[in-house]
Amino acid sequence: MIKVIGVRFRGGGKVYYFDPNEVEFKRDDQVIVETVRGVEIGTVLLVDKEISDDEVPGPIKKIIRKATEDDIKKAEKNIEKEKEAMKICEEKIAKRELEMKLVGAEYTFDNNKLIFYFTADGRIDFRELVKDLAAVFHTRIELRQIGVRDETKLMGGIGICGRELCCKSWLGDFVPVSIKMAKEQNLSLNPTKISGLCGRLMCCLKNEQETYEYLNSRLPGINDTVITPEGIKGIVQSVNVLRQTVRVLFEDGDLKEVKDYPTTELKFKPRKRKVQVSKEEAKELADLEDRD
Asked: Could you read off the pLDDT of 114-152 as tens digits, one per residue?
């Protein structure tokens, strides 16, 4: 086992592991580390975490040092410089008449690289733009094309739940989300209700998928036959997944009766539900699934 600390850079980014280099750190400490992009400042999220050799993707780099007040001021100054860099880059894009939307700019802590993030419908030839920017900023310039989900992660916002977007606040990596997940959770397939600010299916559908799969596996299907505690056969009219109750319909000639039962009181043959999405639904909602 290897003892490491987890460091996150900028908002809800991925947590990376570093060797504490025999120095004690506390959660929320600011630290200076070396990354593939250069020297960066990050925030400690995990302290003295032990991981196995299998969890280590490569050599673990050591923490350079704990950030000083001057380091923190420099990082804040970089953020101000990024705002100015955005304005200049937008002017250069307009001058070159490039079909691209600038989303963000980011300096590495040591100012050795300036990264611009943008979205575009297709491939963009930005070689001349890079030359223009290098002549202004006198540092390495990188233009990185991103998708709509990454754009929303950078911009941030408030979800329909009233909280800050998961991708901005804590979600490190995006996970595949499908229409079948919404169907499994008995959600309305109304695009405005199951899509996030990015226009794709909400990432939180994945968070509850495992729970819904388990709960649904404990329920009978609609129109299945069940046996009540009284030994009477009935037909399943509807189910409540979260309450784990079943509404059973009894028919005796012209007489019909409906009664609710907890799942545990009924006898039935559990079956693995196969969620089906019609061609019409799939076609209508195809644009919501992630294609980045």
From this structure: 999 999 999 999 999 999 999 999 999 999 999 999 999
Contacts of 243 (CB under 8 A, 6+ apart): none
Tell me the pLDDT tens digit for each residue of 141-187. 999 999 999 999 998 999 989 999 998 888 888 888 989 899 889 88
User: Do the bridges between strand 101-107 and strand 113-119 make them parallel or antiparallel, or are there none, so unpaired?
Assistant: antiparallel
Counting runs of H as helices and runs of E as strands, what totals does the chain give?
A: 8, 12
Helix (H) or strand (E) holding 101: strand 101-107
List, as own/partner pairs, every contact residues 82-88 make where C-beta atoms lie below 8 angstroms and the sequence separation is at least 24, other chains included.
82/106, 82/107, 85/114, 85/116, 85/137, 88/133, 88/136, 88/137
Q: Among residues 130, 25, 39, which one has the least CA distance to residue 78?
A: 39
Query: CA 283 → CA 66, 176, 210, 273, distances in Å?
Result: 53, 18, 25, 22
Q: What is the pTM of this model?
A: 0.78
CB count within 10 Å of CB 19 equals 16
Helix-helix angle 127-137:69-96, to 10 degrees: 140
